[in-house]
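Pasting as-is:
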Amino acid sequence: MIPVADYYVVASVLFAIGAAGFLTRKNLLVMFMSVELMLNAANLVLLAASSTHDLGRGSAMALVSVAVAAAEVGVGLAIIIALFRLRASVDAEEMTNLHG
């Protein structure tokens, strides 16, 4: 059996990688994937805590979080594609003036 502390370590490393990727990259797609990585790290913590305390609430919250992430992917990718069609680039620094 894997100790729960190992899950927390992996989740914190995943979250740190996601945060570093979001803060250092300029590409909107990479930033979007970094946010997804941070969300998955939060789901891992929810599931580890749920298994530690033998509660189903953490699993239910992780399932809701996955559903929200799926909706976020649909909306986020649609926005990124629309911005790419408008500007022909996915560079975040070029997206400062979006009023049309």
